[in-house]
Recover the amino acids of this structure.
């Protein structure tokens, strides 16, 4: 099986789905790059190079957009209600402020509000997270803002295999899907089948087995949690690392099953703590798995602050493997 | 207007009149029924504005899409949405167009190309860009029409859409239904330019202003724009200058309007009266033809209300359908 | 005689294993093929056997160690070999041992693909014998089902394990899923590989396919080994077939997969995860549904292909797990000729995995008994 990066896995998902289904179109700022400019054609292939090579094959099924998120995200949604399967890129998740209406008041609600007579198969892929010193307006983890809204599905892959399978599922799903990619893990490698496959939403993956404590997390934090689990294993503490994969729908059954076995839960989230995915998971386990818990739920999150610029500050902002390991120890000592 | 070169056939004229009359009677009846307290929620009436929706929609077919506003009943009816289903929807019944889940402000019927009334002003414009884009890919000759009032003509999503449609050369028409008030605030206060033609020009679009109470003027201007868009000529903006017989919403005391203003408009600028005069002068329809339509429309409205009032409420389980639910 | 017992390589992806309990104490006599220590990989747990008879002189690896493939687990030697000699053997082994760095892609055995009509068929060839054997896995399986068997069998034959249509890395198409479609592909594959006749080993659905091949092209079939084979009787666990095909996630799939083994603890999370990865490939769902539908007509299949066994025209070996919950062992007991029928106790449907040493020995003995 071929090793691919997350970047390559998403690119391959686009290639294969565009080949399979002529209604799939891609749009966003600079996804081709250099449109109308005098220099090289397909200059960028997206800010992170995700789309490289697609324009040469699929031509006008890729659209560079004006810097106009409300209009083009809305256009993707409108086209989705008219038989297309658009994937629109919101370059940074932080830009949701300028187009959120189209996502949460329009796309999220059509199927329900129109009595089940509409479907809106749109994917909005977007980049989140800190780690590049991009500071407060380009580094946020706003996943819970989407998760809060009924009617949209929220996907957050941590590895190349999931990235491809979840993207294909997202494109084929008939509901709007927000596909969140952490900007620090595009070059993470892993085995990815050449064939097309899809991973159903709402199934968490257990990335590491353990009997002592459950760590529930998603996206880039899965890597930090696995690092922490390695550290702890040296001391004989075995962590079960649950990769949520999709935040909506959320696979609470897998978390609860794991907690039933371990009796301890640590939730890890790069977002600030209030009303976050971490808080949500903790609350659900408190509600449905309270009797299995032998200690209070541990939470490792960013502080309730904007994301700082200075690399030194940012390093302290993002939950580290050390912090996760410390929280696990606290939980077990409790 | 002489009979020989009249722009529409007798059948088309009857269809236009029937549409306008249906909208009028629908809205007048909603006005009455709302006052009884039986209709839940907010309603915004289109009475007085019928010529605009009808004049534009006469050019649209099944491959064409529209995105409407909070004041959407007229657009729905003109685009062919079932009137009885609409009444049932306004009553929140299971037989409604949206099975009682949308209500007045969100009536949609995608099978009819009606992408929804919209509670968020200006939000339909980006959606229309998408519908027009889909038609371009599908090469189905479809055109998409966005409606906003003079109020939402200032919204960012609308203005962004004008640019996007122009950049992508979309078969999209942006209609500004200027009824002089954004809720209670006057258009003259809230819109900085005097002319929507100028605003269109700022986005590189052809723009036209017509008297929105004159069905034939709307029909002619919209026809040109839609034909051009259908042939790949790109988007346009159409301002229909029009009037509102009722308040912003049902229950609006309208104290911001001038004394006697509404009475004067009803007496002198009723688009239905004007249409009847025009066709009578041209000798293309008899009063008896109109009377016959009036009777049919009245019967339809009566039936629609009666059936809606008798229709079942949605069952409790419907709260959880038509959306994925976990938790 | 001083011999190392080393960490085995079960399947191409195995790089290391977790040492489980020792089944034999230091100093105990063991026979050839005795399981001496348990090893667990991400995918499967199994016993490591003594390659020859001797005394377990050293249990070098401790339970709980994770060791690379090839690492020293223990030492077999004669009871009278001096301790110093055994210790020297261990020191020398450890001093020279270098874990295999190469991936499957870079060295060692690797699968190949060959185009057969509209199918791209994935297979693994091991061994270099003049005679060829072909291993056919069952419904929902792949060539890795033979990971405990192929290397051992390859000491006696050139052994080709393949992914059947709709499975593994082979094209995900099975037409309507009946046996003739499969046989059609196998005939063409044999032509393309230049194999005139082979010893066929079929597990479950693979057994029924081998039987059908023997009917259609008897010239290609030198012998048949049928492991928990379909096609011999009217009973088959249709709940399993349909449940396996329909399961969409780990929670749904796991109970079905556990039915395959007498010891359900052999079903690791990774095994289920790998099956899900397979099931989620485009086209697999349709293949499995078609195959499940065809296999559910076990009575019809038995009517068609069982005469091959009853006639006795082709040498046939039958091996079954007594606790098979997919196809009952009673079907083996009901065969008219019982001399080559072996029913293994405490064994489920995945007989070649659960009882690999016994199955390997039975097959090689059977082969060697043929002219």
């Amino acid at each position: 099986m071929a090793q691919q990066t997350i970047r390559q896995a998403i690119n391959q998902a686009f290639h294969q789905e565009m080949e399979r289904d002529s209604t799939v179109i891609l749009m966003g700022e600079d996804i081709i790059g250099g449109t109308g400019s005098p220099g090289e054609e397909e200059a960028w292939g997206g800010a992170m190079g995700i789309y490289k090579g697609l324009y040469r094959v699929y031509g006008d099924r890729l659209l560079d957009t004006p810097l106009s998120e409300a209009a083009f995200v809305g256009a993707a949604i409108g086209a989705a209600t008219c038989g297309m399967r658009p994937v629109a890129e919101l370059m940074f998740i932080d830009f949701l402020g300028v187009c959120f209406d189209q996502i949460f008041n329009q796309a999220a609600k059509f199927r329900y509000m129109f009595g089940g007579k509409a479907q809106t198969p749109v994917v909005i892929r977007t980049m989140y997270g800190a780690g590049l010193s991009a500071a407060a307006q380009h580094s946020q983890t706003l996943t819970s803002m989407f998760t809060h809204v009924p009617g949209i599905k929220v996907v957050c892959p941590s590895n190349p295999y999931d990235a491809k399978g979840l993207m294909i599922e997202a494109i084929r799903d008939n509901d709007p899907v927000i596909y969140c990619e952490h900007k620090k893990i595009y070059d993470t490698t892993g085995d990815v089948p050449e064939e097309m496959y899809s991973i159903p939403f709402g199934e968490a993956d257990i990335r590491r087995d353990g009997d002592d404590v459950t760590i529930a997390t998603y996206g880039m934090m899965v890597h930090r949690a696995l690092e922490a689990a390695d550290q702890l294993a040296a001391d004989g503490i075995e962590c079960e690392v649950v990769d949520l994969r999709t935040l909506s729908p959320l696979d609470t059954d897998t978390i609860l099953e794991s907690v039933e076995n371990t009796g301890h839960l640590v939730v890890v989230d790069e977002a600030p703590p209030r009303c976050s995915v971490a808080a949500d998971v903790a609350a659900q386990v408190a509600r449905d798995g309270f009797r299995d818990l032998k200690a209070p739920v541990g939470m490792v999150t960013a502080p309730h602050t904007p994301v700082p610029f200075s690399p030194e500050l940012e390093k302290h902002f993002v939950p580290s493997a050390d912090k996760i390991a410390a929280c696990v120890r606290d939980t077990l000592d409790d | 207007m002489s009979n020989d070169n009249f722009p529409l056939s007798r059948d088309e004229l009857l269809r236009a009149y029937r549409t306008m009359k249906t909208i009028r009677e629908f809205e007048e009846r909603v006005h009455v029924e709302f006052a009884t307290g039986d209709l839940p929620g907010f309603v915004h009436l289109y009475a007085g504005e019928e010529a605009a929706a009808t004049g534009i929609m006469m050019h649209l077919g099944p491959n064409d899409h529209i995105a409407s506003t909070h004041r959407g009943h007229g657009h729905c009816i003109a685009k062919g949405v079932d009137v009885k289903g609409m009444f049932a929807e306004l009553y929140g019944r299971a037989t409604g167009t949206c099975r009682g889940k949308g209500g007045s402000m969100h009536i949609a019927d995608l099978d009819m190309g009606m992408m929804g009334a919209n509670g968020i002003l200006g939000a339909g414009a980006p959606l229309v860009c998408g519908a027009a884009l889909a038609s371009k890919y599908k090469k189905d000759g479809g055109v998409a029409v966005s409606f906003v009032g003079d109020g939402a003509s200032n919204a960012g999503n609308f203005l962004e859409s004008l640019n996007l449609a122009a950049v992508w050369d979309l078969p999209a028409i942006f209609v500004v239904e200027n009824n002089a008030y954004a809720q209670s605030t006057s258009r003259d206060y809230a819109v900085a330019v005097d002319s929507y033609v100028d605003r269109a020009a700022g986005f590189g679009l052809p723009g036209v202003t017509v008297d929105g109470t004159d069905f034939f003027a709307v029909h002619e201007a919209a026809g040109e724009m839609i034909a051009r868009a259908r042939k790949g000529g790109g988007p346009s903006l159409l301002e229909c200058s029009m009037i509102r017989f009722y308040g912003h919403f049902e229950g609006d005391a309208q104290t911001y309007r001038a004394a006697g203003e509404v009475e004067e408009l009803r007496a002198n600028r009723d688009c239905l009266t004007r249409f009847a005069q025009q066709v009578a002068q041209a000798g293309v329809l008899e009063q008896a033809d109109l009377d016959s339509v009036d009777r049919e429309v009245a019967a339809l409205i009566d039936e629609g209300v009666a059936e809606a009032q008798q229709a079942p409420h949605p069952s409790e389980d419907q709260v959880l359908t038509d959306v994925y639910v976990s938790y | 005689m001083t011999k190392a017992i080393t960490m085995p390589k079960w399947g191409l992806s195995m790089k290391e294993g977790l040492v489980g309990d020792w089944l034999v104490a230091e100093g105990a006599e063991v026979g050839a093929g005795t399981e001496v220590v348990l090893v667990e990989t991400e995918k499967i747990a199994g016993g490591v056997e003594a390659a020859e008879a001797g005394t377990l002189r050293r249990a070098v690896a401790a339970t709980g160690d994770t060791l690379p493939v090839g690492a020293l687990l223990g030492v077999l030697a004669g009871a009278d070999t001096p301790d110093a000699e055994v210790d020297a053997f261990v020191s020398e082994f450890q001093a020279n041992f270098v874990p295999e760095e190469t991936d499957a892609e870079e060295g060692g055995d690797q699968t190949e693909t060959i185009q057969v009509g509209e199918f791209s068929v994935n297979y693994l060839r091991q061994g270099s014998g003049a005679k060829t054997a072909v291993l056919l896995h069952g419904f929902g399986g792949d060539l890795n089902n033979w990971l405990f068997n192929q290397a051992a069998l390859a000491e006696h034959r050139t052994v080709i394990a393949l992914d059947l249509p709709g499975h593994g890395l082979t094209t995900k198409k099975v037409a309507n899923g009946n046996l003739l479609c499969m046989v059609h592909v196998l005939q063409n594959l044999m032509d393309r590989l230049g194999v005139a006749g082979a010893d066929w080993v079929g597990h479950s659905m693979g057994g029924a396919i081998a039987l059908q091949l023997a009917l259609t092209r008897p010239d290609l079939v030198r012998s048949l080994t049928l492991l928990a084979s379909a096609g011999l009787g009217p009973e088959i666990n249709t709940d399993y077939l349909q449940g396996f095909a329909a399961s969409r996630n780990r929670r749904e799939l796991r109970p079905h997969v556990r039915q395959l083994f007498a010891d359900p603890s052999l079903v690791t999370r990774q095994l289920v995860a790998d099956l899900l990865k397979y099931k989620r490939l485009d086209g697999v769902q349709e293949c499995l549904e078609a195959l499940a539908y065809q296999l559910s007509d076990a009575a019809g299949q038995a009517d068609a292909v069982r005469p091959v066994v009853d006639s006795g025209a082709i040498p046939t070996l039958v091996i079954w797990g007594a606790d098979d919950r997919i196809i009952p062992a009673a079907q083996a007991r009901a065969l008219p000729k019982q001399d080559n029928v072996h029913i293994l106790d405490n064994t489920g449907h995945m007989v070649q995995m659960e009882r690999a040493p016994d199955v390997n020995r039975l097959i090689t003995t059977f082969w060697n008994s043929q002219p």
